[in-house]
Amino acid sequence: MRGRKSRMSPLVPHPPLAAIFDVDGTMVDNARYHERAWIELAGRRGRPIDGEYYRKNIHARANDLIVRTVFGEGCSAEFVRTVSREKEELYRETFRPAMKDTPGLTGLLEALSARGIPCAAASNSPKENVDMVLDGLGIRKFFRAVVDADQGLRGKPAPDLLLAAAERLGVPPESCVVFEDSASGFAAADNAGMPYVVIAHGATAEDRSRATNALAMYPDFRSIDIESLPVRR
Predict the structure, then answer these.
(1) Are residues 122 and 72 in the same domain?
(2) Distance in angstroms (rounded) separating the CA atoms of residues 34 and 190
(3) Residue 94: inside a domain
(4) Total-model pTM
(5) Is residue 4 part of a domain?
(6) Which residues neighbour 62 within 8 Å (Cβ) at sequence distance 6 or greater?
(7) Has residue 40 got a pLDDT over 80?
(8) Domain containing 160 — which CATH number?
(9) Do 227 and 120 belong together in one domain?
(10) So what's the pLDDT on residue 60?
(11) Sheet hosting strand 216-218, strand order edge to edge
């Protein structure tokens, strides 16, 4: 799938027709748990990496890209699946007991629901990780569509996950607003032709510096006024 490149009306203040939420780093501040899991796994398998390498080379990327970055482009598909599964098990084991939502998330979801604005989740993470967050936080009821890495679509920065979410909500991409925290997510929104808002709570300084087309940047969800976000109608 490709983002829309046709002529579009200018951005004007309107509530969006739909909202699409990233999961990792956006709904929950879990970056350090992913980092620890990848560092531990790479060390176990004889390819030690440190935090600097993680942040510069693999942060917020899809697992298949991460495995090939760390272990080489020649990795078999089975090896990619095995390593990805092992890493995600490590991550869930450590993050589940510490999990909490980004401040204001539930309140914003309630406000969107009250206004009849449908929501979707779109994540590079596998289904089990996404399910852990949506069910663990008790927020699945707010999401009409959930798109994850196990559905055979290209991960961010490709636009596929976001476009699939918009299609399932029945809303044109340009009339959605995306809530994201990472450079790969910002690029995916740009590639999909979707306006996006940066949630800086879990974003690195480098990621924030790359949010050049953002509608706005907030530390968390508490001060977002959904009525005044500029989107295309």
Answers:
(1) no
(2) 25
(3) yes
(4) 0.85
(5) no
(6) 124, 149, 154, 155, 156
(7) yes
(8) 3.40.50.1000
(9) yes
(10) 74
(11) 143-147, 119-122, 18-21, 176-180, 196-199, 216-218
Give the burial class of 17: count Cβ atoms within 10 A of its Cβ; 0-12 exposed, 13-18 middle, 19 or more buried: buried
CA separation for the pair 111, 104 (Å, rounded): 11
CB contact at 8 A, 64 and 47? no
Number of domains in the chain: 2
Using alpha carbons, select from 26, 25, 71 the residue that is nearest to residue 49: 71
Q: What is the mean pLDDT of residues 61-87?
A: 92
Q: pLDDT tier at 222 (50, 70, 90 boundaries)?
A: very high
Please tell me the distance from the alpha carbon of residue 69 to that of residue 17, in angstroms, as a whole number: 38
Res. 188 pLDDT band, cuts 50 70 90: very high
Catalytically annotated residues: 22, 24
Task: State the amino acid at position 41 in one-letter form.
Answer: L
Same domain, 73 and 160: no
Amino acid at 112: L
- 226 and 150 in a single domain? The answer is yes
What span, in angstroms and rounded, lies between the C-alpha atoms of 227 and 14?
6
Q: Is the distance from CB of 181 to CB of 156 less than 8 angstroms?
A: no
Question: The tokens of 125 are what?
Answer: 């993470």
Give pLDDT, residue 62: 79
Per-residue pLDDT at 90: 96
